UniProtKB/TrEMBL annotation:
InterPro entries: HAMP_dom, HATPase_C_sf, HATPase_dom, His_kinase_dom, HisK_dim/P_dom, HisK_dim/P_sf, Sig_transdc_His_kin-like_C, TCS_sensor_his_kinase. It comes from Streptomyces fungicidicus. Keywords: Kinase, Membrane, Phosphoprotein, Transferase, Transmembrane, Transmembrane helix, Two-component regulatory system. Its cofactor is a divalent metal cation. Residues 187-247 form the HAMP domain. Residues 262-480 form the Histidine kinase domain. This is histidine kinase.
Amino acid sequence: MTAFVRRLRGTYRRTRLGTRLALGLGVLSLAVFGVVGTVLTTYMRDYLELQLGDQLKLIQAVQAKDAAAHGTVRRKPYYGWYTAVYDVSGDAVTLRRPSDVPDDTRALADLARAMAHSDSELTRTARIEGEGTYRLRGCEVEPGVVLVSAAPVEDVEETVEQLITVQVVVFALALLALVVFGRRMLRRGLKPLGDMAHTAHGIASHDLTESAARLPLRADGRDGGSEVAELRTAFNTMLEHIDDSLAVRAEAEQRLRRFVADASHELRTPLMSVRGYADLFQYAAANEPAERDRHLARLRAEAARMGVLLDDLLLLARLDAAEVEAPLRTADTDLVELVQQAADAFRASHPGHPLTVTAGPGAAPRLRLDPQRVRQVLDNLLTNAAVHTPAGTRVSAGVEVSGGWALVRVGDEGPGIPAEDRERVFDRFYRVDKARSRDRGGSGLGLAVARSLVRAHGGDVELSGGPGATVFTVRLPLDGGP
């Protein structure tokens, strides 16, 4: 028995949700129909028996007068009914003749005997041999004389049986229709869940390793009610989150590949130069001192350039890693004085680019920042303006305070940056002019380093302007950043 129950449970667990709900609905409906049928049948039986009792009482009122006048009942009752008049003396019961009684009169005599010792009318149900079940009622005609009437209960039983039969048929048809149409409605209502399951299987079979893979699957539709709509919304939100995560991962992978390729390319050039100049020193004995000095100077320049590149890469790596000890040494610093120092250094190294420094009203804040790193940011932005503009181009640097931020704007009146390149100027190793020489254009890390350093201070760097003007805005929080 236990094994059978286990198999039955296992079969039930493997059935689909719609089938479970339909079976549950059928069992619940069967229980409701059973309760309703039982209550209705009981009520109908009690009602019919009450009606039968009222009929007996009404008929006995007429028969009692007949018995009092003639000694016996001359008026015949309904077909199948019996009437008897008894003389009761103590426990002795004598039937008056003529009487319309069955062969088995024990039940009638017993009721007459009990009626002689009762102060009220008596009613009981008894079985008469050879006739069936009857409803008996007794009443006293006069002292010592008892009238007993018997009505068959067969009609009541037949009516109740017919009612039960009708109920069984109607309830069975209603249960069948309820299960069939309920199953269809449940299948329609659960179809959105099936569609979402199909979508989930599609996601499981989707290649999530592809770069920039976007999931083309969505759970759509309007059926299912508010609960299914909430589940559909949550499901689609999850898919959007997965899509965004895949896009971010794919973009990160592409940037990593591009970064590795660009870094390898940038490091390969100075390494090849160092290797070439080192090979030249094999013939140093045959070269003139001036030529050896020139080769040595080039060798040192390439090594220095490679060192700067590696320093920038190491700084970006530490900033990206979000180390516990950030590469910042903060101190209270006068931002205007820091900008002035960067401007003085720029004028000394780029005399061909006139520089103007301005400070707005209230633009003398002392901020909690790393002066060396912010100075590096300013030097990178100013150098970028000088490198990518022709000689004589005006450069400007301004400081102002606005809305809880200290703003440093570095601009030039050069040719500007094309619109298609503005979104990528802060990418590592990205150059607007792909054809310019590395000696002039640098490694493409200056702006990336500048933005990373400013963000490490809790600020940001923005690019604005159009053809004929380029403006970089450094935003630093007045409260000292994170």
